[in-house]
Amino acid sequence: MQQYPLLVRSTIRLAFLFLLVAALILTRTLLVPLFLSVMLAYLLLPYASWLEKKNVNRILTNFIVILGFMAFVGCIVYALIALSAAFTENLSEIKEQVESNVRAIRDSLAAFTGLSNESIESWIESIGQTGEYVAQAFTATTNTVLSIGLLPVYTFLLLFYRDKFRDFISMLIPSEQEKVAQDIIDQASEVVPKYLKGLVIVCFILFGLNSLGFYLIGVKYALLFGLIAALFNLIPYLGTILGYGVVMIIVLGTQSPTLAFAVLIQFFIVQFLENNILTPNITGSYVEINPLVIIFSLIASSMIWGLPGMLIIIPYLGLFKIICENVESLKPVGFLLGTRGTERHSITIKSLQRRFGWLEDED
Predict the structure, then answer these.
(1) What is the DSSP letter of 233?
(2) pLDDT tens-place string over residues 75-91
(3) 286, 236, 257, 232: which is closest to 80 by C-alpha?
């Protein structure tokens, strides 16, 4: 490859990248359930291993952990449906309130900008058409998620054959590299489950913070909106923005612009706490990927696989970073992906303790 000019080599690499992206898009229906199942298997692995240490049969162990996870998800779905019941019962009143608020916003815009009511209405209709396109995009994502029925099957088989996969990797690589490969596997089986578990913990904490904040500022259905905003946080960094964006739009349409502004203020407070305190100290300590790489990867994965891509990209980035840190030639890439080198600028529990003199600086 080195004998070719730089332009030719760069063109070949770029063409390979485009072919890879095209292949990922074309095989989305096939690969998305499998990639989600790998993450789910990693999440359940510690519990499955614990049960096996108690001399529980692997087949029974897999059934227990998968059914337990399905029950956990079912409880969240039930809570979401139960909290939505009061909201849906008042849909007629909410619709009237939305129409009244839209008229008030239209009149305010007309008075502020000098535009005619017809122009404002045309602009609002164009926004509504944009919303239809967004809805179609989510429908397409929903069609992909219909294959979610494969998740328990794939997860069961991945957990059942996990030793076989480890042996397969050992057979593939040279014997002198086997220790490095086993180290990578061991680190991945420790880091990825802890990250995913931490992500769930952050969502529960944000559910409490969001709901309490919405209740204090006077938002109706505070628990429902708190849960919705927290579930969006399964998408790191951008999830809080998306969740609060949805809530703010609903509050703007159903209650008042003043309350929507209060939701915006609460968003900045929660965003600061989540990005600088919760995530770095609960999940960030495991994958330690810098925010620039995370945001770029989220956008790229959403373009390729939509919402499922945004949900799974960070754990796979963590796996890739582990590989880079254990392969000598890829260590610079691992350093670029990580957060090392910016510790003195980060806000963590230890940095706050040092700031207020509660923790002595280490020599």
Answers:
(1) T
(2) 888 888 888 776 776 66
(3) 232
